[in-house]
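Q: Structure tokens for this one, please.
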Amino acid sequence: MRILEHRALRGPNYYSRYQAIYMRLDIEELEQRSSDQVEGMAERLESLIPSIYEHRCSVGERGGFLQRVRNGTYAGHLVEHVAIELQNLVGFSVGYGKTVDSYETGIYNVVYRYRDEATGLAAGISAVEIARQIYNGEDVDLQPHIDRLKEVRDANALGPSTGAIVKAARDRGIPAYNLTEGTSYTQLGHGIRQRRFQATVTDASGIIGHSIADDKDWTKQVLSEAGVPVPRGQTCFSFEEAREAAEWIGWPVVTKPLSGNHGRGITTDITTVEDLRSGYDAAVARLREGADGVIVESYIKGEDHRMLVIGGKLVAAARRRPAHVTGDGQSTIQQLIDRENEDPRRGVGHENLLTQIRVDEQTHRLLDQAGLTLDTVLPEGELAFLKSTANISTGGTASDLTDEVHPEVRFAMERIGRLVGLDVIGIDLLAETLSEPLENQSAGVVEVNAGPGFRMHMSPTHGTPRPVGEHIVDMLFPDPTDNGRIPITAITGTNGKTTTTRLITHILRQAGKSVGMGCTGTVEIDSHVILRGDYSGPAAAHAVLREPTVEHAVLEVARGGIMRRGLGFDECDVGVLLNIASDHLGERDIHTLDELARCKTVVVDAVRREGGYCVLNADDPLVMEHGTHWARGEIIYFTMDPENPALTQHLSELGMVFTVRNGMIVMLRGKVTVEVCAVNDVPIAFEGHAPFNVQNAMAAAAAATAHGVEIDHIRAGLLTFHPTPAQMPGRTNYFEADGVKCLIDYGHNVPALKALRPLVDGLATQQRIGVATAPGNRRDEDLIALGAELAGMCDLLFIYETDARGRATGETAKLIHEGAAQAETSCEVETIHDEHAATDRAIDAAQAGDFLLLLVDDIEGATQRLKGRSFPHQAELALH
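A: Here is the predicted structure, written as tokens:
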């Protein structure tokens, strides 16, 4: 069994509405095994992974998947379920999966959901190996796979605090994105409505406040001058200074690094010079680069409390106790530690609610101070403390006391947040109790923390869990109806996607919106190109939705992007489906128009149900059949036929339709007719000679209407959008100078050429000279048909080749040439493999009155060649 391909899919895609892992497996060898070789597989599988019994599969009941295995199923199906359960075993709750065969014998497409992309991919690789071993009757050791997946999980998954914020955001419908791989830097929301945070530090956290919190000496000065009780102390730069400070302060004392976190390098309850030496060295070892001070301060004999203030309000309070064990009168301290570490709540690092207790030098020092060793048998009920600080990360425990905080203590904590200047702050308070004012007891604030951890509050060892992630989200998005999203328009179809995408963008800009646009060619932010290339996939969505100034996103969505990585967003406000025609069939297991239609209808299937709109071409039978079936939200149809009988019921139900009536683009709703503009006034319509662009114009007008754009702005957008290289690079760019007409376009498939034919017929009056090619990843019959269509449009045709895409050099051009030669036309055909040479030959052959049709890849290069040869200037784009 071999993995032929595997990748992650983000957002809705052809296979699933979830984020999913896609695997293409070659399992022909395993499929050929005899029935006795796989007998007992279900039992071996359940013995290996008992929890797989819970998988209902298509049977619909517990144990359903194992029933399928007993009755006979394919190896890809086994891989799917094992991959799902492996993720569950390392803490990611997933359940969706699907396995289907392909057009090739023994090749299967497997899809299953993931929570963390890297872990999901790793689970698939392990599942393939496990399935292979089970089929071969080999012994399977599951633990190495689990250990490896945990390593991947810990290296890539969000920590508990970041994860809590992300979960709270998604529960409110706010999208969340990790911005940099391997970090917790996260974006909530889209574009101009986004907020960002890293760990628990938000984009509103003050840099001065963060600096104060990072400098314990500065913190004490700010708080003490404001009347907040803090320990008496001094910053020391040598051990001699530390010893003198301890004598001046009075024993016992505490040592800690001037800058640090998580309780690292802190030693408490120091009573001797010898212990002071150890504490000083421990603090120096934890100093951050560029810091060289060690704080020596008085030891306050209160309990350790963590107070969490978010957005100026105290939202959680916890009493923390250092890692400790309680005697039973029979076990040694080491045995008690081992028993405590067996608690399933304890894990390594941050993987579980509690952290395992590690015996280190500090542990030995504390035991020695108490006259104990690891071999001591503690009397029943007696406590032995193993760490000097109460951090969860060093094995401590926490008890929630939020409901017991005295109003004066609450006020003091919220005041500290304001004094330091942090919107999220963790305050370490030593106090005898939280139920009495601080002035009535021995108490002091020992430090404050920017970006505090949430584990102790979300899942305390004792007491009520607090939804601190929700408090962060509510602070960042105070309006409970705000989901942080900006309007998204997604456009797909076989042809016309780029033109429609650019036209919608132009209309929205006319309406005063800041628009981010991704299409074949560029990603643009407010008319500024930020990326060049084919951005008709999820990469454009990622770039646009992360841009902090964008108010609207307009995204071209091509079949290839959907198949490779999904949409790049979870839902859109407006989905536009222009047409469905034969192109790229045979790629990625899409062999029929119905399969292609299902792929493209992912866009309208991703429209939000409440308040969303689908814009559909009523003149395309496949769009009407598949698009109408999968569409969500409200449908707006567009059609060239104002009497289209398929729309009668839609109009009777007050549905919207855009159509052409008496030479005008109009909007119909029920019995209401609203005139938008005359077709002849729309530059890209070429006075009606380009009906495909009339359709694109109606689709754009419909999408803008769905967004609430006024008709005046829509009209202004349609009338000011020209087929120039500046506004529509490579899409029906028309030049006329020195008596020669030229049309540059990107049409590389038969449906595109059929759409162009009326325009060519309307513009050309003499000899028609064409330059054309197509990518090599079309079927042979598609390339031959393309050649025949070109021969019917041209008198002289130059064929070139630039993108073989897996074919032998020259094979694509040969097939196109063959199709042109077989056509019953008088077209003269010549193959010139170099694009620039072919363009030059066409320009040289053109005479006054001739028509050039350049279907080229290098749009800018062709334009420059035209300007530099026979065309000294670019004329106004109009018909003469």
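A few notes: The two ends are 65 Å apart (CA to CA). The first helix runs from residue 28 to 31.
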